[in-house]
Specification:
Elements lengths: L2 E5 L4 H12 L3 E6 L14 E4 L5 H11 L3 E4 L8 H22 L5 E5 L27 H14 L6 E6 L1 E3 L7 H8 L2 E5 L8 E3 H12 L6 E5 L7 H12 L4 E5 L1 H18 L7 H8 L8 H7 L7 H14 L4
Parallel strand pairs: 1-2, 1-4, 2-3, 4-5, 5-6, 6-10, 7-9, 8-11
Helix pairs in contact: 1-6, 2-3, 3-4, 5-7, 7-11, 8-9
Length: 328
């Protein structure tokens, strides 16, 4: 039985990655911290290992001991200061690569979970969608830190890596887009700005399935954007949530200028508290971008990717989960 180690295993995508790896008959090790919430890692087949990603020497020894066949680096930071983003998303990735190259020279595959944010929106490109051949133009520190980690992989010689860049990921247990569900459930449906956006999404089960397909494939040193292949207006997201909740809501369109002021105030208050707000000035850059379409044709060609969920079907399943587990 082949061994796989998954970082970020206790998180939203990580938990589903662990479950998909188990379905494929892999021996699964979950990299966790002492503070990790293990609620969704209760399957007795999962072997949890406390791994300090900041300690290259300790990781090298651990990797020598276990000789994993595969490695999925899913851990990352989505909110925080620029310094924290690069420390977690870039430096820790560099640490892992050094430890793997020293500890497991015969590693079969290293999969890095990046983000569409590493390239930025299609607003920044000449075409109507972001493609692999485009010049990356991230608009946030998060995107820049993910791109910097990708560049570390490109700098390695003869290392068996694959990169996946998902767009907005949603599904059961997700907590960020869930905020929008919660507001609509209370009768409020807010939108930012007055221009029509082209948003893209991928349901978590589609994402983890294609990631593990790539892990077990012969492909290496390639990168893929991941979405369900469609673009949606922001109003469609609200419509599907309302329909599944059976709710009516007050639709509010908030001018960008007001949102920027709120985000600026949030940052000032959070700096005094030593925290980082969900709505910040960098987040506003993402929210005001008009086109997040990306090219998934290479994913279809190389890995036979055919999404099983469009947004309407995915929102239905997600809403049912939130209701069943009393999140709403």
């Amino acid at each position: 039985m082949k061994k796989v180690l998954v970082t970020g295993a206790s998180g939203f995508v990580g938990g589903f990655l662990v479950e998909e790896c188990l379905k494929r008959g892999l021996e699964v090790f979950a990299a966790v911290r002492p503070s990790s919430d293990l609620t969704y890692l209760q399957d007795q087949r999962i072997q949890c290992l406390q791994v300090n990603l900041a300690d290259v020497e300790a990781m090298t020894a651990l990797f020598r001991q276990h000789q994993f066949d595969y490695f999925i680096h899913n851990a990352g930071l989505t909110k925080g200061s620029r310094e924290a983003m690069f420390k977690v998303n870039t430096q820790l990735c560099d640490n892992i690569l050094k430890a793997l190259q020293e500890g497991i020279p015969d590693l079969k595959k290293f999969v890095f979970i990046s983000s569409l944010a590493a390239y930025g929106p299609a607003d920044q490109q000449r075409a109507d969608e972001v493609k692999e051949a485009d010049e990356p133009r991230p608009i946030t520190s998060y995107g820049e830190s993910k791109l910097a980690a990708e560049k570390l992989l490109h700098a390695t010689s003869d290392f068996p890596w694959l990169v996946f860049r998902p767009t907005a990921v949603y599904g059961p247990r997700e907590k960020d887009i869930f905020t929008f569900f919660s507001l609509i459930n209370k009768g409020i449906e807010p939108y930012i700005g007055f221009q029509t956006q082209q948003l893209t999404f991928v349901y978590v089960l589609d994402l983890v399935r294609v990631i593990v397909d790539g892990l077990l494939s012969e492909h290496r040193q390639k990168s893929y954007f991941v979405s369900d292949g469609q673009a949606y207006a922001a109003l469609q997201l609200g419509q599907y949530i309302r329909q599944n909740l059976g709710k009516r809501s007050l639709r509010l369109k908030v001018p960008l200028g007001i949102v920027r002021v709120i985000a600026w105030c949030n940052e000032k208050v959070a700096s005094l508290l030593g925290s980082h707000p969900a709505l910040n000035l960098e987040k506003v850059k993402e929210l005001e971008s008009l086109n997040w379409k990306c090219d998934i044709r290479p994913l279809k060609s190389d890995l036979g990717f055919h999404p099983q969920y469009d947004l309407q079907k995915g929102i239905s399943e997600t809403t049912n989960w939130y209701l069943k587990h009393k999140w709403l």
